[in-house]
Design goal:
The chain is an all-beta fold and about 325 residues long. About 0% of the residues lie in helices and about 45% in strands. It contains no helices and 29 strands. Strands 1-26-25-24-23 form a five-stranded antiparallel beta sheet, with no helix packed on it. A four-stranded antiparallel beta sheet has the order 2-29-28-27, with no helix packed on it. Strands 3-4-5-6 form a four-stranded antiparallel beta sheet, with no helix packed on it. The chain starts with about 25 loop residues before the first strand and ends with a strand. The relative contact order is 0.18.
């Protein structure tokens, strides 16, 4: 059986022009987003998550200050600030039509919001403790999936008025820190060292063990859905073949020892990008895992939030310095 590898497009090109400040950068190919285009200020405290909406026109950020914000990444303007969480907002996702946002945080908070009005559409109850990750899934974003400190992944129906979960997965031995979705599949990474993938259409489940001493804190699908990026608290970042369960490559250099640090593949699946607790952002070539750029994105703080544009060579990062930055090729 042919092993599932992500496609590498050598023709990845910069699609956005930029003027702005270039932070300290090592080895910066022209097609990589290594130049600051806009700085997004306004959060009072660490920025815990950053996310492009589904078409990449807007950026969402959420923070320890219990708010989340909608930004225009082209000019750095804050369009709207949303309040209503009683605890830090830990993760955020947008529905496919960009009209709704799902957020999660402390004390079991899971909310769905109307982007335009800023009002809460739904509030889901059931998690005990922090809810660490949230994603829309299902047809037309009809289901919200969440991962919690209570060792569970839960699914919530956005179409009904019920506040309880329609399904709960409790196969984990410790807190579930991260989930991601792709088509009908959901992947979850846990502090127990496992990565579990569920296909809601076929019912197939797989589990890959990274070792109990290596807490899995971040998981994300490749754009083509054939591989996973898996990050652990032991600084490890690996590319995993979903079908074979084989580690295809590892990407050294980043620091992730005490906190959840995100990593993503670029829009063309040609590069791996990760934040780091030392404030840097690392960019590796996918296949040979060579470092192609290192950016001092959030000096003297942790680069604890990161996302890549769905179609362009554009990146947004967030840090414990309370700032988010939009990056484009030089």
């Amino acid at each position: 059986r042919e092993r599932g590898r992500v496609r590498v497009d050598p023709q990845a090109r910069a699609a956005v022009a930029s003027s702005g400040t270039t932070h300290q950068v090592m080895l910066a190919p022209a097609r990589l987003p290594t130049t600051t285009h806009a700085t997004l200020t306004g959060h009072e405290g660490p920025v815990l998550c950053v996310r492009f909406n589904k078409d990449g026109k807007y950026v969402l950020t959420c923070g320890k200050d219990r708010t989340f914000k909608l930004w225009n990444p082209r000019n750095g303007c804050c369009i709207k600030t949303y309040s209503g969480h009683a605890h830090p907002v830990l993760d955020i996702d947008t529905a496919n039509d960009n009209s709704r946002v799902a957020t999660c945080g402390g004390n079991g908070d899971v909310f769905v919001w109307d982007v335009t009005s800023g009002g809460k559409i739904r509030k889901f109850k059931g998690h005990q403790g922090n809810v660490n990750s949230v994603r829309f899934t299902g047809e037309h974003g009809s289901v919200v999936a969440t991962a919690g400190f209570d060792r569970s992944v839960r699914f919530w129906d956005c179409r009904s008025n019920a506040t309880g979960a329609i399904q709960t997965v409790t196969a984990f031995g410790d807190a579930v820190m991260s989930i991601d979705t792709k088509d009908t599949r959901i992947v979850a990474g846990s502090v127990d060292g496992t990565v579990r993938t569920f296909d809601v259409r076929t019912g197939k489940q797989t589990s890959d063990d990274f070792g109990g001493e290596k807490s899995v804190t971040d998981v994300s699908f490749s754009r083509d859905g054939r591989c996973l990026l898996v990050g652990t608290l032991s600084n490890r970042l690996a590319l995993l073949d979903i079908d074979e369960g084989e580690v295809l490559a590892e990407y050294p250099g980043r620091t992730s020892e005490t906190s959840k640090i995100p990593a993503r593949l670029t829009h063309d699946d040609a590069h791996v990008v990760s934040g780091s607790e030392d404030g840097k952002v690392f960019i590796w070539e996918l296949v040979d895992a060579a470092v192609e750029a290192t950016i001092d994105a959030h000096p003297k703080h942790s680069a604890c939030a990161l996302d890549l544009h769905p179609r362009l060579a554009v990146m947004v990062t967030g840090g414990t310095d309370g700032v988010a930055r939009v990056w484009v090729p030089p």
